[in-house]
Specification:
Helix 1 runs antiparallel to helix 2. The protein contains 6 helices and 9 strands. The protein has 223 residues and is an alpha/beta fold. It is globular. It has a domain of 153 residues: Vaccinia Virus protein VP39 (Rossmann fold). The strands form 2 sheets. Strands 5-4-3-6-7-8-9 form a 7-stranded mixed β-sheet. It starts with 10 loop residues before the first helix and ends in a 12-residue tail after the last strand. The longest helix has 13 residues. The mean pLDDT is 93.
């Protein structure tokens, strides 16, 4: 398992990021522990490793970015809101899994994480990194996230990592389990991180905070 490093990639550096997240309102112990455990620097280009533990989004190639740590932490904290300390989701669907960092974070709060990514080069990269970390409960699938992942539906939680113009009602109707939770950015020029809870067949929406994500795109890229 790859966890330690030197200088900007050390556990001490990760701890400084954890402290910054705590100062900015991340109070869930399990979320903070996941950020201690998962080395963010391995998920970005080596040339940017000195910035890996800044609280900022960074490019990962293919026109995509690794999300700002605070946003990832906020999403996961919302998923755990009101849950017991030992709670785990049975299945989480992550749409737009990118480099795999958020998938690795989510692996600690789920029995299995299914990441859907449309860009094949990122599927290969993220799958390899997750294996190197010794994580065995994450599957990265090369597919169009617009379709979710019907093969393993329904999911207890769906987390979206690209901005869509409106709530994906059809996806939530067909692939989100009853009492399931959706979290993702909704909007175009103005985006809001939004939480949707499904109770029986009804959807209850809550706006969390303003965010800025890359736009959601359909189709797949084979490269």
């Amino acid at each position: 398992m790859i966890q330690s490093g030197v200088g900007m990639t050390s556990a001490r550096t990760r701890e400084r990021l954890v402290l910054r997240l705590a100062e900015k309102g991340i109070s869930n112990v399990r979320v903070l522990d996941r950020f201690r455990a998962i080395p963010r620097h391995i998920f970005i280009e080596e040339a940017l490793s000195s910035r890996a533990y800044e609280d900022t989004a960074l490019p990962i190639g293919a026109g995509q970015t690794i999300s700002q740590p605070l946003i990832v932490a906020s999403k996961v904290q919302e998923l755990l809101k009101g849950k017991a300390l030992d709670f785990k989701y049975k299945k989480i669907l992550e749409i737009g899994s990118g480099c795999g960092f958020q998938s690795a974070i989510l692996s600690g709060i789920a029995e299995h994480v299914y990441g859907v990514e449309r860009i094949y080069s990122l599927v290969k990269k993220s799958s390899n990194l997750i294996r190197k970390l010794g994580i065995r409960n994450v599957s990265i699938i090369h597919a169009d996230g617009n379709n979710g992942y019907l093969n393993s539906a329904p999911f207890d939680a769906i987390i979206l990592s690209a901005a869509i113009e409106e709530a994906p009602v059809k996806l939530l109707d067909t692939q989100l389990a009853s009492n399931g939770v959706f979290i993702g950015p909704i909007g175009n020029t103005t985006q809001v991180l939004t939480k949707i809870i499904k109770k029986r067949s009804k959807l209850y929406q809550e706006e969390l905070e303003a965010v800025n994500f890359v736009p959601f795109l359909s189709g797949v890229i084979h490269d």
